[in-house]
Design goal:
Strand content: 15-25%
Number of helices: 6
Order of helices and strands: EHEHEHEHEEEHEH
Oligomer: single chain
Number of strands: 8
Helix content: 25-40%
Shape: globular
Distance between the termini: 23 Å
Structural class: alpha/beta
Strand order of the largest sheet: 2-1-5-8
C-alpha cells in the first residue's frame, strides 16, 4: 500500500502557528483508516513551539532557503531558518524510511506550500513559490499536493492500482 506524507494540521492536529488545526478532509480520514498516512509537522519537528509567531520567506521561495540565499523570519524579525531546514530534513527522513512518493501538505505554508507562499512582508500578499519542506521533498522526487488537490492524488493512486491489477502482457 502506497504511504502518503501528510501535514499534521490537515489531520486537525493543533500544530499551526496559531495553535489550531486546519480541519480534516474525508479522503484524508479514509487514508488514515487504511493506514496510508505518515503524519508530520515540519515546523514542530524542526523545534518550533505551538503556538508561535507567524513566519514567512522573503520572496516566498523555499528552494532559496535550502540554498542559503534567504532566511525564514518570523513577524518579530527572528531568523527561524534552522528550524525550517531541520523540519524539512525530518520530512525527508520519513520519506526514506517509508518509501514515500507522495505528500499532501498545507497550502501557502512557509514549510509546506506547494504552489504559492506569502512574500515575507506579512501583508497577506501571495507569491508563486513553495515552502522549505515542499522544496526539499520535490528535490527528492516526491510529488507534493495540497489540500485542494486531494482528488488529483486519489485519481493517481487509483491509476496505479489499476495498472498493477492488469495481467502482464495485456495491452491497454
Amino acid at each position: 500500500m502506497e504511504k502518503i506524507l501528510v501535514s499534521a494540521c490537515l489531520l486537525d492536529q493543533p500544530v499551526r502557528y496559531d495553535g489550531t488545526g486546519a480541519g480534516c478532509h474525508a479522503l484524508l480520514q479514509r487514508w488514515w483508516a487504511e493506514g496510508r498516512i505518515v503524519m508530520v509537522c515540519p515546523e514542530v519537528s524542526g523545534g518550533l513551539p505551538t503556538p508561535r509567531p507567524p513566519a514567512e520567506i522573503p520572496g516566498g521561495q523555499g528552494a532559496a532557503v535550502l540554498e542559503g540565499r534567504v532566511p525564514v523570519r518570523d513577524i518579530q524579525g527572528t531568523d527561524v531558518t534552522a528550524a525550517f531546514i531541520a523540519g524539512a530534513e525530518t520530512a525527508l527522513a520519513l520519506v526514506r524510511e517509508h518509501g514515500i512518493r507522495f505528500a499532501v501538505l498545507k497550502a501557502r505554508s512557509p514549510s509546506c506550500g506547494n504552489h504559492e507562499t506569502y512574500d515575507g512582508s506579512f501583508s497577506g500578499t501571495r507569491v508563486p513559490g513553495e515552502g522549505v519542506a515542499a522544496a526539499a521533498l520535490r528535490r527528492q522526487g516526491v510529488q507534493v499536493f495540497n489540500e485542494t488537490e486531494l482528488a488529483q492524488l486519489e485519481q493517481l493512486l487509483q491509476q496505479q492500482v489499476q495498472s498493477c491489477d492488469e495481467p502482464s502482457g495485456t495491452k491497454r
